[in-house]
Specification:
Distance between the termini: 28 Å
Structural class: alpha+beta
Shape: elongated
Oligomer: single chain
Strand order of the largest sheet: 1-3-2
Helix content: 55-70%
Radius of gyration: 22 Å
Length: 187
């Protein structure tokens, strides 16, 4: 058997052992079976927990290190969906180095965090561009425009934070799995 199938069987046994409405004898048998499989295939609980988590890499939308407001937006998305975020750099198909975020979580949470970041980043970029094209910003130096745009972006992120957090609704029981995955893949 390949390791993924073994880990799936162990996870199912562990779920049966945790089952609240199940027979206590069945739960004990399931737990013993999980431990037997772990011993037979030389697996630890950290391996089982790590297999419950996954990751998604999303380009930040900027060259090199992403600006602070992009990092804050990614943190908002990661927090809302209960994922951990890693800031990294990625090599594109055209051999350019761009900033990227790795979202680590369980089930569909990493994909949802990445998707939320991409959607909100597009909306924020549009709002920021419109703000900078307003008449009061026409005669400013480039550095002043960038600073004003960054302040606008941070205010926009503060305004959207609670909405995203309420929308997502996080399950707090996944922290151990994420930590095990991080220890195994991103030490």
């Amino acid at each position: 058997m390949d390791q993924d199938r073994i880990l799936e069987k162990i996870k199912k046994c562990m779920e049966m052992a945790k089952g609240k409405g199940s027979n206590p004898n069945e739960a004990e048998i399931a737990l013993r079976q999980a431990h037997k499989l772990m011993e037979a295939y030389n697996l630890e609980m950290g391996d089982v927990l790590a297999s419950m988590a996954g990751e998604v890499t999303i380009e930040a939308g900027s060259d090199g290190t992403p600006p602070t407001w992009r990092i804050r937006l990614a943190q908002v998305c990661a927090h809302a969906f209960g994922t951990r975020m890693i800031i990294t750099q990625k090599l594109t198909d055209h051999f350019d180095v761009v900033g990227a975020f790795i979202f680590v979580g369980c089930a569909a949470a990493p994909e949802l965090s990445g998707y939320a970041y991409q959607v909100l980043e597009r909306q924020l970029q549009k709002a920021r561009r419109e703000f900078l094209q307003s008449p009061k910003n026409k005669r400013c130096k480039r550095s002043t425009k960038v600073a004003r745009g960054d302040h606008f972006a941070n205010g926009w992120i503060d305004a959207v934070y609670l909405k995203v957090d309420q929308f997502a609704g996080v399950d707090d029981n996944i922290a151990e799995a994420i930590e095990a995955y991080m220890a195994k893949h991103h030490a």
